[in-house]
UniProtKB/TrEMBL annotation:
Recorded metabolic or biological pathway in which this protein acts: Cofactor biosynthesis; (R)-pantothenate biosynthesis; (R)-pantothenate from (R)-pantoate and beta-alanine: step 1/1
List of residues binding (R)-pantoate: Q61, Q153
UniProt keywords, alphabetically: ATP-binding, Cytoplasm, Ligase, Nucleotide-binding, Pantothenate biosynthesis
Subunit structure: Homodimer.
Protein name: Pantothenate synthetase
Subcellular location(s) of the protein: Cytoplasm
Highest taxon in the source lineage: Bacteria
Gene3D superfamilies xref list: HUPs (3.40.50.620), Pantoate-beta-alanine ligase, C-terminal domain (3.30.1300.10)
Binding-site residues, ATP: 30-37, 147-150, 176, 184-187
Free-text function comment from the UniProt entry: Catalyzes the condensation of pantoate with beta-alanine in an ATP-dependent reaction via a pantoyl-adenylate intermediate.
Listed EC numbers: 6.3.2.1
Coiled-coil intervals: none
Amino acid sequence: MEIIRSITELKQVISTIKNDQQTIGFVPTMGFLHEGHLALVEAARAETDQVILSIFVNPLQFGENEDFDQYPRNEANDLQLARKHGVDYVFIPEVNEMYPESIGVSMTVTQRIGVLCDRSRPGHFSGVLTVLTKLFHLVQSDFAYFGNKDAQQIAIVDLLITDLNFPIKLRMIPTVREDDGLAKSSRNVNLSDSERKEAPALYQALVHGKQVMIDGERSADKIEEEISRFLNERTSGKVDYVELLSFPNLEPIRATDHQVIIALAVQFKKARLIDNIIFNI
C-alpha cells in the first residue's frame, strides 16, 4: 500500500494506472475508519484493479458551531485498517494542499436539497460537492463507493455525476450496523454511555415507521409524527428532523413513486446521528 500526500504525486500514480489500462475504485472518506468504510473498500476490491481511499476532513462542509475541530481522527489506525483490507493507495492531503488559496469557484445544488440535513446544515452540501468534484477529477475512478447511511449525500452525488457527465459509476453500499442496529459512524465515539444505550432507538424508530406505512398509513405527516413520538419516548436527544420522501429525488411522495426513504437525525450532547431506511412501496 502506498501513501500519497500531494496532488502532484497522485496525478503521477493515476497516469501510470491509466496507462496500464487498469480500473480504479474510489472510496472517499473523512477517516476514523470503521466497518462501514471497510465494506466500501471490500466492494471496490471485488470489482476493480486498484482501490484508492482518500482521508480528508473537509472544512468546507462544516458550518459554524459544528464539530470540525472535534471530528475524530486516527491516521495510524486508519492506515493499518486500509492496508489490512487491501487498499492500494491512500490519499491523505493537508487542507492547504486541497485548498491552497481562497476558493474562487463554488459549487451549488438546486435539486434534492431543502430537506433532511440540508435544512439544518446550510452550505454543507456545497462543501461536499466542491471537494468531491476536485477528488473525482484527480482520481479519475471508474467507480465511486458510498454508504447508504448518508442517503442525501448519495442522492446529490448521483446528481453531480449525472449533470456534470463524470464517467463514474456510483455504487451504493448498504449501511453497516452494530448488533443492536445502530448505524456505524465515526461520531458514535462521542456518545456518553447512557446515550449509547439509547441510540439503537433510531433504527427501531425507522423500522416502526416503515411498518406503519406497510399497514396502510400514507400520510407523511402522521408517519413522521409517530416516529418523532417513538424517539422522544426512548432517547434524551433532540430530534432534528424526521422525513418521509421519494428516493432519490427527495420530494413529497406521489402515487406514482415506488421507492421512498424515511430519514432522521437526532442531536445528542456531543454527537449528531443520522440514519435512514430506503424501501419500495
